[in-house]
Protein: Lipopolysaccharide transport periplasmic protein LptA
Organism: Methyloligella halotolerans
Amino acid sequence: MTAKRSLNAAPPLRRAIAVVGALAAFMTIFTAASAFPAFAQTIKGGAVGAKPGAFKGLSKNSNEPIDITSERLTVYDAKKVAVFTGKVRAVQGDTTLRTTELHVFYKGSANPLGTAPDADRVADAEGQTAPSPEGGEGGGDAAQNPASQLTKIEAKGNVVIVNGENQSSRGDHLLYDVETQLVTMTGNVLITSDKDQTTKGDTAVYDMTKETVTVRGDVLLSKGKEQSAHSDWAIYDVPGELVTVGGNVVLTQGQNVLKGNKLVVDLASGQSRFENTGDASANNRIRALFMPNEGGKGKSSKGDSGEDEDGGPMQLIPRSN
């Protein structure tokens, strides 16, 4: 039976939490997904302000310490995993991660805990603060550069990430894979902002290398009760400032409806277009339904190009002037 030792805020425990301190980069990165409602608003013709704020400085890792609280911390040296359980809460700056369990996997011959490899360590880690890599205690490569030892971070159960801009991401499970540079949230994904904007889907993935955010599976982008977009998937290319929504796209604003196979929105130019990626059969043709305005001043029409009777395109993005 593997021996278990009690840790009471000793330097080895601080070194252990220093490894978990690499969560700082992870939390900064995944906060980006909270900006999805901002571009959802853009697609549906809401007020377009500045570029999505949560995407600023995606590649910059914060030097702020990360404060992790939980009811229990168990470190399995042989398996190279540290497990926080019981009302886990991790805070870095204005970003907070809450979950039922938090698993941190590491590798390398350098033991981040300074213990024998066959010993499991258990601690009541409530209130412990993980320092930034520069402030790690003790010797060894892991203590000096914990991020280099991480392989993945996994949050299980009721995962919630909230930042100071009143944007939040929720899901059942979250995985940060260091090798692939992918952050994946799955299970009843819900991303919201304080401007009544929401994004729902089965999965949300942030690709750190390509700087793209992808939501898949019965995707719903909405702003309030009047504006929404349904699709099979949606992709936000951050550096390209391009939004692509595809797969049975249904764009709704009030009683006006636009249907197509793929919608592409260029945030830089403010231009948007529906594309037909299939053949010219009736099932793949673009279709629009515009209802008259109140007082009979509007026009209604059905067309294949998304244009009304005056030839003007449906205004997906408001003009800036």
Q: What stands out?
A: The mean pLDDT is 67. The chain is about 10% helix and 45% strand. Residues 4-303 form a domain with the lipopolysaccharide transport protein A fold fold (CATH 2.60.450.10).
